[in-house]
Design brief:
The protein is α+β, with helices and mostly antiparallel strands. The protein folds into two domains: about 140 residues, 2-Layer Sandwich (D-amino Acid Aminotransferase, Chain A, domain 1), CATH 3.30.470; about 55 residues, no CATH class. It is built from eight helices and eleven strands. The radius of gyration is 25 Å and the shape is globular. The relative contact order is 0.16.
Amino acid sequence: MSLGANPDMPQIFSIRQIYFLTRRLCGDALMNKRKDHIPKRDIMYVLNEDDSQYIVNESYFYKTEPYYTIVKNENDEIRTIPSSSDVLDAYIVPICLEKAKLAAIPVCEWIISNVYVSLPAIVYGLNYFSTPSDHFLVSDLEEAKQIIKHVTNRGRYPFCYQKISERATVVKCVSIFGKTINCCEKSRDMAERIYEVFRLPLVEIVMVKDEAGCRLSSLSPVKYSQLSKDETEMLQDLLDKRVRHLE
């Protein structure tokens, strides 16, 4: 009788044999396969914590999935952060600045106009399709005319502008639950105060820095792809631990 392997008997492999067999058949990529990348573009995430739902998204504009999710939760009496009023206030520049000013946050002075602008200035559109992400730093008259024509849709809508000094600089800082990375101390403090007022988990803060200090210019959406490596890792760590994502 042959003492060789019986083809009808199941073969038993050691862990080491399974490891090398898998590598040979599937390659190292399978063995080192990472979990799905978070955050993913255009995906809304819901964090459940402290009897509240935190909605994390690139944008919270009116008539978007995050906005309607917030409104539905409020109708269902689910405490939701941010609230529908928070997101509406945050993305309309004059309202955003007045709300921040009431909370003692330094803000840029703003003016609503149809034609006139005092230079240099930061210009924001106020039409239905405008976003604070599209702001323009203008310093000469001809440039201002072209920008105003663009943001007003050839005079159909008003615009908002903020007069700034010649030596002013416009800086941006991403806030993740009120925390920032690689920003100055004044920016970090402002991000924390803005989060207390508007409660936006993810937002870009546009600020003006000059001899008078650091002032808020606007709050705008921020795409996941815009985040730096450190910012992505901060958000990813948070979502990995506590997220139930909706795809």
